[in-house]
Design a protein that fits this description.
The protein has 421 residues and is an alpha/beta fold. It has helices at 5-11, 28-36, 47-62, 73-81, 99-114, 128-132, 134-142, 155-176, 244-251, 274-277, 281-286, 346-357, 370-375, 380-384, 394-405; strands spanning 64-66, 69-71, 84-86, 91-93, 118-122, 147-152, 183-187, 190-193, 195-198, 204-207, 212-217, 232-235, 256-257, 260-261, 264-269, 296-297, 310-311, 313-315. A hairpin with a 2-residue loop joins strand 7 and strand 8 (190-193). The relative contact order is 0.11.
Length: 421
């Protein structure tokens, strides 16, 4: 990790302005594995082999510098040791480098440094579950006595993440690295890095790092399973979690000791039903600082209730936008929205997305409805806008609705008087 707040601020830029280059160097271990199906040619259990794996662990825990770019340890771990499922390839493969992901891991590490929690509202299908499971796995494999939790509202959600993300991460590390770990217990939603052994005196004892990862199902109870302490708590699918704020209230004592923050809560989700946002996500995104979450400048909203204020971490549709420009009237026709180094062409993507919404691109194109826009937003206002039919202009009435909901105009008195006329 970096050592000062200013060092992080010097590294963090806007997505699209990082000017990444030669990012293949960031994932040299993954590339070597793709070519050879193992990580090193060094002979196992030799001094050089041990030094290789010790250095990799240092990079994962502390980060590293490559060509003037600081690579957070979590991001290095993700790129080189945690294959993810690629829908376009229909198989598990290592992640590619994108400035969206680099920015996310930089800001997450900055939040951890500042002892702030991290709340994200995002476009759909951006792979943030994959990214935010990385701290959980790093804690499991490299720390000692570290308790961690993954929580969703529905049972199916947490089981899906466990079987499709967490388990493949563990399987790859245990099969292909020097960091093999035994787990007891090792059943879905309940892992502990430990094993049972017989001591010299004949006693059955538990040894190991004793790190814990548990899955919580909040629809059964927002408080069941919480207690003790925690290092990371990841509340996923927060946009469809009506008890999110209750859950956060229960777990905050787990990551504090007096006035000191001892752990990190990560809250992430795309927008679901608007009624569920009152469960906490909208409050945390709109007012991150008063809720102890990491805050960023809102550079996306103009002339609405969100503009000119701090907000939680927002991921618009224009970041790392996949595909090529197929607008025949565009000067960038046929070109991708991400370059070979992982840099996003954000402004080009925004222009293209707005044209698609208006039904101006494609033979069978049609104008996008409000729900579709909320799932691929360019601003925070688009996440939270009213989605039903309305004869009035919703872009004008939504800010007033927000004021009424927050009682901002309640209790304002004016004097009335009658003239002679």
């Amino acid at each position: 990790m970096l050592t000062t707040d200013q060092e992080y601020k010097d590294q963090i830029k806007k997505v699209g302005e990082y000017k990444l280059r030669d990012t293949h160097k960031w994932r040299e271990r993954a590339i070597f594995f793709q070519e050879n199906e193992y990580y090193t040619d060094l002979v196992e259990d030799t001094h050089d082999w041990n030094e290789f794996w010790d250095e990799e662990e240092r990079r994962i825990m502390n980060g590293l510098w490559i060509d003037g770019f600081y690579i957070p340890g979590l991001y290095y771990f993700y790129l080189n040791y945690l294959p993810i499922y690629h829908k376009q390839l229909n198989k598990y493969e290592f992640p590619d480098v994108y400035d969206m992901d680099y920015h996310t891991f930089l800001c997450l590490e900055h939040a951890i440094f500042l002892k702030k929690h991290f709340v994200v509202i995002k476009k759909r299908q951006a792979g943030f579950t994959l990214k935010f499971c990385v701290p959980l796995i790093r804690e499991l494999f490299f720390e000692r006595g570290s308790p961690n939790y993954l929580a969703t509202f529905e049972e199916a959600q947490v089981l899906k993440t466990w079987t499709e993300v967490i388990e493949p991460y563990r399987e790859h590390l245990n099969t292909h690295t020097a960091w093999y770990r035994e787990f007891t217990p090792s059943k879905p939603l309940n892992w502990r890095v430990a094993k049972q052994v017989i001591s010299e005196s004949g006693r059955n004892i538990t040894v190991g790092r004793k790190n814990i990862l548990k899955g919580l199902i909040l629809s059964k109870s927002p408080s069941k399973g919480v207690g003790g302490s925690a290092r990371f708590i990841f509340a996923d699918e927060a946009g469809v979690n009506p008890v999110l704020s209750k859950f956060i209230g229960y777990v905050k004592p787990m990551i504090t000791y007096g006035d000191t923050t001892t752990g990190t809560i990560i809250v992430s989700g795309a927008v679901g039903e608007l009624k569920h946002l009152e469960g906490g996500l909208k409050e945390y995104i709109q007012y991150p600082e008063k809720n102890s979450f990491y805050a960023v400048d809102n550079i996306w909203d103009k002339d609405n209730e969100f503009s000119g204020k701090k907000c939680g971490f927002f991921v618009p549709e224009s970041w790392a936008y996949f595909g090529v420009d197929d607008d025949p009237t565009s000067e960038f026709f046929g070109q991708p929205f991400i370059d070979e180094h992982g840099n996003s062409y954000v402004e080009r993507a925004e222009t293209y997305i707005r044209k698609k919404r208006e039904g101006l691109i494609g033979e069978n194109a049609k104008e996008a409805d409000k729900f579709s826009i909320s799932q691929a937003p360019l601003t925070l206002a688009e996440c939270f806008q009213y989605r039903g039919d309305n004869v009035f202009p919703t872009d004008l009435i939504n800010p007033q609705i927000a004021k009424i909901e927050k009682n901002e105009d309640h209790g304002t008195f004016i004097d009335l008087y009658r003239t002679q006329d």
